[in-house]
Design a protein that fits this description.
Elements (H helix, E strand, L loop, with lengths): L1 H19 L1 E19 L2 E8 L6 E11 L2 E10 L17 E8 L3 E8 L2 H6 L28 E8 L6 E8 L10 E11 L2 E11 L17 E2 L2 E13 L2 E13 L3 E2 L3 E2 L7 E18 L2 E16 L2 E3 L1 E13 L4 E14 L22 E12 L1
Antiparallel strand pairs: 1-2, 1-3, 1-21, 3-4, 4-5, 5-6, 6-7, 7-8, 8-9, 9-10, 10-12, 11-14, 12-13, 13-16, 14-15, 16-17, 17-18, 17-19, 19-20, 20-21
Length: about 375
């Protein structure tokens, strides 16, 4: 009898301990505001839009202590539009992230599923859009994916622990196709942080991005450019001193045999062919925290494009200026205002790329200039 009682007590303690060492957290964010676009096919547009400084989302994440310094982790994260309740990322249930894995404080983490690539994980933080400003401040057509135009499916990711301020990692995304390389992706990146200094670099390559529905980059809701190959690399740095932060970033995006942009559709010339596109983005940004509740920031980006077609090499130029101010009403709720102007100059290609388009605008301008302004409320839970 005593043995049975003792066994029951031990089993109860073990069950209680196991429960205490596991956790699951429901979280989310709602970003909703009023947008003004100066020129959409020659007309002004006023609209309500969701998820600009940050994408509106809800998610569930969890962690279980497996002993010996190992933990099982998972995350399921959904994107949605506040205005109509529709799912984001092409209608996927957990379109932002969906993964499970093992992590260790000593050895790092290995995760499997739909995840962010190394450009987003390591380099994006040096840009305004990937750090504090969001969608409107993205480089033209988010050509370098620093604003997460696409996530990567079928992905194995490794992320190292923090080693004296240094972190590194990489991803490999399977094509899940009989042609092993058809719509696969791989990336790697690194970051070093000490004091107020952050240094970052990353590289990504995708073969036939968006070519298949079941591959690494899905053509249903993930896309910046459709082509036979996509290569992105870049480096950046930021430095925080007192209440100020300044950042610089350079990214280089190459698309072989491009046919379309996920933002503006067909980009092939009316006559001839387009063999490749290259975007070189040069950005400088800054933010100043005037009080614990209020900051203001600015960004300037210069983008030189190589448009390689039948007519030879052409060089459209995109320049963007962005301003933002943000005021915290509480620890979880803030109000912000943003404005971005884009101007297109340089060579004319005879395609939609000659016209201004700020990422997040209602649509393409009828001219080489476009302004988008936004006033919004953001709440985190």
């Amino acid at each position: 009898m005593k043995t049975k009682v003792l066994t029951g007590i031990v089993a109860s303690i073990i069950a209680t301990s196991s429960f205490a060492e596991s956790s699951a957290t429901l979280y989310g964010l709602i970003d909703e505001g009023f947008n003004y676009t100066s020129n959409v096919a020659g007309s002004k547009v006023y609209e309500l839009q969701s998820g600009y400084a940050q994408g509106s989302r809800w998610g569930l994440k969890g962690k279980e202590d497996l002993g010996s310094g190992l933990f099982a982790i998972f995350r399921l994260e959904n994107g949605f539009n506040v205005n109509n309740g529709r799912l984001g990322q092409g209608g996927l249930m957990f379109g932002r992230q969906a993964y499970v894995g093992i992590t260790s404080n000593e050895f790092g983490a290995v995760t499997l599923g739909r995840q962010y690539d190394s450009v987003v994980d390591y380099l994006a933080q040096a840009t305004a859009n990937g750090n504090w400003a969001g969608y409107l401040f993205s480089h033209p057509y988010d050509n370098d994916n620093t604003d997460n135009s696409f996530r990567v499916n079928n992905t194995v990711k490794y992320a190292s622990p923090n080693i004296a301020g240094f972190q590194f990692g990489g991803t490999y995304s399977f094509s899940n196709d009989t042609n092993f390389s058809n719509n696969r992706q791989y990336s790697f990146g690194a970051q070093y942080s000490t004091g107020g200094l952050l240094l970052a670099a990353a590289y990504l390559q995708a073969n036939n991005p968006s070519a298949t529905a079941g591959g690494a980059i899905n053509n249903g809701g993930d896309e910046n450019f459709v082509g036979s190959e996509l290569r992105i690399f870049g480096a950046g740095a930021s430095y925080t001193f007192g209440s100020a932060n300044v950042g610089v970033a350079y990214t280089n995006t190459y698309v072989a045999n491009p046919t379309a942009s996920g933002y503006v559709g067909d980009i092939t010339p009316a006559a001839g062919t387009l063999s490749s596109l290259r975007f070189q983005n040069f950005e400088i940004n800054g933010k100043y925290q005037f009080t614990p509740s209020f900051f203001a920031g600015a960004m300037y980006t210069y983008t030189r494009t190589d448009f390689n077609g039948t007519a030879g090499k052409l060089h459209p130029i995109y320049q963007m200026v962005g301003l933002m101010a943000d005021y915290n009403l509480s620890t979880r709720t803030d109000l912000y205002i943003q404005g971005v102007h884009q101007h297109v100059s340089g060579d004319r290609t005879g395609t939609v790329l000659d016209l201004a388009y700020v990422p997040g605008a209602a649509d393409v301008s009828s001219t080489q200039n476009q302004v988008v302004a936004r006033v919004a409320l953001r709440h985190k839970f």
